[in-house]
Amino acid sequence: DQQVKQNSPSLSVQEGRISILNCDYTNSMFDYFLWYKKYPAEGPTFLISISSIKDKNEDGRFTVFLNKSAKHLSLHIVPSQPGDSAVYFCAAPAVQGGSEKLVFGKGTKLTVNP
Amino acid sequence: EAGVTQSPTHLIKTRGQQVTLRCSPISGHTSVYWYQQALGLGLQFLLWYDEGEERNRGNFPPRFSGRQFPNYSSELNVNALELEDSALYLCASSRGTSTTQETQYFGPGTRLLVL
Questions:
Q1: How confident is residue B103, by pLDDT bands cut at 50, 70 and 90?
Q2: Which residues lie closer than 8 Å to A93 by C-beta, 6 or more apart?
Q3: Does pLDDT of B100 surpass 60?
Q4: Which residues of B touch A108 (CB under 8 A)?
């Protein structure tokens, strides 16, 4: 039961252009979303989050957009840099058995070409 | 400030064996989370400990277990290893008990290979 879906396993963009990473979710009860970035041989690092009361959150080159009616969020990186090449995971806290857990998508591998 | 540390970094075991993975959270963090990332899959939630108690557990069989010590470090134990247990095991820590309020900080992971 994949509650958080990242349907694109990979994305390749040119340096300086915009990267758009997409995430869909099935549980309308989700009210908070997070993006994590993971380099090889390292653990994921928190990137940016958004609450369901907002439709946009911006932090420097990173902006997350939330479309609740479509149950869709996207992460925009502009301008993209080679150092942004990593796997990006979308995540949402889900309630299970009266307690919370983070549910992650399968990730999208972003490659930014110089 | 030191980040989340995990040991060992790599491990090779054979089917049926048992393994213990270790995690030290960031100083001041009381919650520790364990995740499994198998090939081609996202991070799958395994266990969540806070203040020494198991708060939540993912959809994994009972041979996956763990504990949290008074210093908030944690162990993940996997008994009767199976080939499909080969994965990257990630530990994360956070300050509070709510995953919506507190960011989780991840360690580098332990890569387990079961032959």
A1: confident
A2: A30, A32, A100, A101, A102, A103, B99, B100
A3: no
A4: none
Contacting residues of B for A32, CB less than 8 Å apart = 100
Q: Average pLDDT of B89-97?
A: 88
More confident residue, B42 or A75: A75
| 3 state DSSP class of A20 | strand
Segment B26-37 shows an average pLDDT of: 94
Among positive and negative, which fits the CA dihedral A93, B93, A43, B79? negative
- A75 min Cα distance to partner chain B (Å): 17
Handedness of CA A60, A81, A6, B54 (dihedral sign): negative
Reduced to 3 states (helix: H, G, I; strand: E, B; else coil), residue B71 is coil
* Closest CA of chain B from A104, distance in Å: 6
- Interchain pair A104, B40: CB under 8 A: no
Closest residue by Cα to residue B77 from B15, B24, B14, B17 = B17
Q: Which residues contact A57 (CB under 8 A, 6 or more apart)?
A: A48, A49, A50, A51, A63, A64
For A95, name the nearest residue in chain B, comparing CA atoms only: B56
**Model pLDDT for residues A7-27, shown as the tens digit of each residue:** 999 999 999 999 999 999 998
Residues 6+ away with beta carbon under 8 Å from B84: B38, B114
Q: Under a CB-based contact definition with an 8 Å cutoff, are residues A59 and A77 in contact?
A: no
Residues of chain A with pLDDT under 50: none
Q: Identify all chain A residues contacting B103, using CB atoms and an 8 Å cutoff.
A: 34, 46, 49
